Amino acid sequence: MIVGQCLCGMVKYRYHGEIEKTILCYCKDCQMAQGALCGWNSPLEKSKFEISSGIKLLKEYFHSPNKARVFCQECGSPIYSYRIDLPDVIRLRLGTVTQGHIPAPSEQAYLQYKPDFLHIDE
Ligand SMILES: [Zn+2]
Ligand SMILES: [Zn+2]
């Protein structure tokens, strides 16, 4: 089981499964949305994902029309995203995980935007 929360702690979630695959994405959208050098995400089954508190604080932002970016309105932490055309999958923002195993990234995307100082073992 995976447990996590936003920075202020008002939004909490559980994932009734394990994280099998994680992805680093250096695209500019991820950098801006996370305020960081990359996004660190995992595709998960929506049916096993449960918001255990603070669901009313979640807000969806559509930067592109088919992709919702879901974040805590109180503290701004990005929690997950999903695509309208893939309703069974969410992409969890792994910096919010507080309990459970997160495997090392098996995929990196948009390497042209990766900062030179960052070195990741493949
Ligand atoms: Zn929060
Ligand atoms: Zn990206």
UniProtKB/TrEMBL annotation:
Q: Which InterPro entries match?
A: CENP-V/GFA, Mss4-like_sf
One Pfam family recorded for the sequence: GFA
The answer to whether UniProt assigns keyword Cell membrane to this entry is no
Q: Which UniProt keywords apply?
A: Lyase, Metal-binding, Zinc
List the molecular function annotations (GO) for this entry: carbon-sulfur lyase activity; metal ion binding
* Superkingdom field: Bacteria
- Indicate yes or no for the key word Chaperone: no
Homology family: Belongs to the Gfa family.
- Name used for this protein in its record: Glutathione-dependent formaldehyde-activating enzyme
